[in-house]
Design goal:
The protein has 16 helices and 13 strands. It is an alpha/beta fold. The chain has a six-stranded mixed sheet, sandwiched between helices. A four-stranded parallel sheet has the order 8-7-6-9. The structure holds pyridoxal-5'-phosphate and zinc ion.
């Protein structure tokens, strides 16, 4: 545990020791970045050693994650991450791109990117002796916490807005979490969990609040670099050094995923394992575009919106990690784009039909952003681009039916089949 030095506030830069704070900066409520001891980490792990690792999960990077080994071998907690990196050649051709990769985080144990955060939060909960974990969630964070808590045998309490898609609520319930549907918005559910965590001494996982979510989610940046390096083919010697794509596209709601990717790349840069950080493109839905608005207006002041989009996982009035999310784009020469619900549904279709990846609306939003970036001339045909799908399409079957249309009913005869095939 020598690796964990403490925290640094993303707003006022005040530093705190590992036991001084739990969630956010006591002075200004700013999100805390975990500070790591790169000297000590460098002694424990290297790209060469990783090339030999047989742990195909986020835990291959344990020396870079500020928790102890969580145990629970042989459970889905140990199967989070190391999701596949695909080369979707037909999609690339349609877009006129020569180098395109698609990383599918819908293939996590509970079928979304959120497992990365929840697994690490459970590990942290065990370390501080927490007995119950709680989170507010539009669905995926809750499902991930419920699933990882089930793996660890720890009770979980989930507060979701009443409007959460049914498949996601079913997932919360089947993992045995105590589920409460709040007759209000996600933001109201968020505030309620903070109060409840305080009142009942529960450990709160909330996104853009608990600093350990980012320490889990950043593992996607590690995987992007490591898998990309193997994909572009460093033959022979194990890599001493990792390659990076030029540009990464990711969907943004609260902004914790994009800011965590940024943190992960910064970790690797500090370790000297990569030479530069990819440009980060954050994609928001037009109906939930608070960070995009700030980016366009050239300000760090993020004004809440009244969110309304089919992409429920990124439907957020007030982004809880907005500042860091904004900087993830501005500090990497990336950008924010916003896309319509219609283009998100089209992206779901294209991803499934041309790349065989079934994404939920919020996951497909990243690809819809790439389509827009190509149309607007924001990316070049030789640029090495990686798109991250963050959630599986089975999470929201209603949206999938909207994207795909209805099936035709026929009589049980060849004649009937012939008629409709015509
Ligand atoms: C949570 C989530 C996002 C957005 O992550 P933020 O940290 O809120 O920006 C995107 N896609 C899916 C599927 C998600 O569950
Ligand atoms: Zn502060």
């Amino acid at each position: 545990m020598g690796k964990f030095l403490g925290y640094c506030c993303s707003i006022c830069q005040t530093e705190y020791g590992p036991d001084e704070v739990t969630y956010t900066c006591p002075k200004d409520g700013g999100n805390l970045d975990v500070v790591l001891d790169y000297e000590s980490i460098r002694k424990q792990i290297s790209p060469e050693a990783l090339a030999e690792s047989s742990d195909n999960s986020i835990w291959r990077y344990l020396p870079l994650i500020p928790v102890d080994d969580p145990g629970h071998l042989g459970t889905p907690l140990r199967a989070v991450g190391w999701t596949p990196l695909f080369t979707p050649t037909r999609l690339a051709q349609h877009l006129g791109l020569h180098h395109l990769w698609l990383k599918d985080d819908g293939r996590n144990p509970t079928a979304s990117f959120k497992d990365r955060a929840s697994a690490v939060v459970i590990a942290r909960a065990q370390m501080i002796g927490a007995r119950v974990v709680v989170t507010a969630s539009t669905g995926n964070a809750g499902a991930a916490l419920a699933g990882m808590a089930a793996a660890a045998g720890m009770p979980a309490v989930i507060l979701a807005p009443k409007t959460a898609p049914q498949a996601k609520v079913a997932q919360l319930l089947i993992f045995g979490a105590q589920v409460f549907l709040v007759d209000g918005t996600y933001d109201q559910a968020f505030d309620l969990t903070l109060e409840a965590a305080e009142a009942f001494s529960w450990y709160c996982r909330n996104t853009g609040y608990n600093p350990f979510t980012a320490e889990g989610k950043k593992t996607a940046a590690f995987e992007i670099c490591e898998q990309y390096t193997y994909a572009v083919g460093v033959v022979g010697e194990p890599p001493l050094h990792w390659e990076t794509p030029d540009t990464v596209f990711v969907s943004v709601g609260d902004g914790n995923i994009i800011s965590s990717l940024h943190k992960g790349f910064k970790d690797l840069l500090s370790l000297g394992w990569i030479d530069n950080i990819p440009k980060l493109f954050g994609i928001q839905s037009e109906g939930s575009a608070a960070i995009y608005n700030a980016f366009i207006n050239g300000t760090e002041e993020i004004v809440p919106v009244k969110a309304d989009t089919i992409a429920d996982s990124i439907s957020v009035d007030l982004p809880r990690d907005g500042l860091r999310a904004l900087r993830a784009a501005t500090q990497t020469n990336g950008a924010y784009l916003s896309v319509s619900d219609e283009s998100i549904l089209k992206a779901m279709q294209d991803l499934a039909r041309e790349a065989a990846v079934f994404a939920e609306p919020a996951g497909a939003t990243a690809y819809a952003g790439l389509v827009k970036a190509v149309a607007d001339g924001l990316v070049g045909s030789e640029e090495r681009i990686l798109v991250l799908n963050t959630g599986n399409g089975l999470k929201d079957v209603q949206a999938a039916m909207k994207a795909a249309g209805e099936a035709t009913v026929i009589g049980p005869t060849l004649e009937a089949l012939k008629r409709v095939l015509r």
